[in-house]
Specification:
YceD_bac, eight-stranded mixed beta sheet, Large ribosomal RNA subunit accumulation protein YceD, YceD, 3 helices, two-stranded antiparallel ribbon
């Protein structure tokens, strides 16, 4: 379990690799050599989404894990089409979400604090991380809350905000 992320078992993650012979919900960091090359996970999130994102949210996550001296480095790219409710005009729009992140996965708060200048850090327990929880947190941090261009917003809100075409 990751210290910054509340556990919620109602998400669905399907990560499949033929060599695993199973569908995996968690990534066991002790098996990090298996993740040296990019792996691909298809994720459907329906719970704990940011309030401006409409469920279900279908995403693809490509990730790999490397071991550094005192921590693991998770490199991941999350992509997919998400339905966003613009927080400016309240109209729903489709957004092609793509974001790459590197996270330092640390066994203790002390290591995480030392790495915060260089990486976003997550403290793990029991040598496991839940990829779906990390992806959900990423949506909170990096997903758009409004149309990229205000001119794409509803004309009534543009008039209210006194935005001219």
């Amino acid at each position: 379990m990751n210290s910054r992320i509340p556990r919620n078992n109602r998400h669905t993650l399907i990560a499949y690799n033929p060599s695993w012979n199973c569908i995996s919900m968690l990534i066991n960091l002790k098996k990090h050599p298996e993740y040296k090359e990019y792996q691909k996970a298809s994720i459907e999130l329906t719970e704990r989404l940011p309030p401006h994102i409409q469920p279900p949210c279908h995403l693809t996550c490509q990730f790999k894990i490397g071991f550094c001296q005192y921590y693991y480095l998770l490199s991941m790219t999350v992509s997919g089409n998400i339905q966003v409710i613009c927080q400016r005009c309240l109209n729903e729009f489709s957004h092609e979400y793509v974001n790459s992140t590197e996270l330092a996965l640390c066994a203790s708060e002390a290591i995480a604090e030392k790495l915060m200048a260089d990486f976003e850090s997550v403290v793990y327990e029991k040598e496991e991380i839940d990829l779906r929880e990390l992806v959900t947190d990423e949506l909170y941090l990096y997903s758009p809350t409004t149309h990229e261009d205000i001119h794409e917003c509803n004309s009534d809100i543009k008039q209210y905000l006194e935005i001219s075409e």
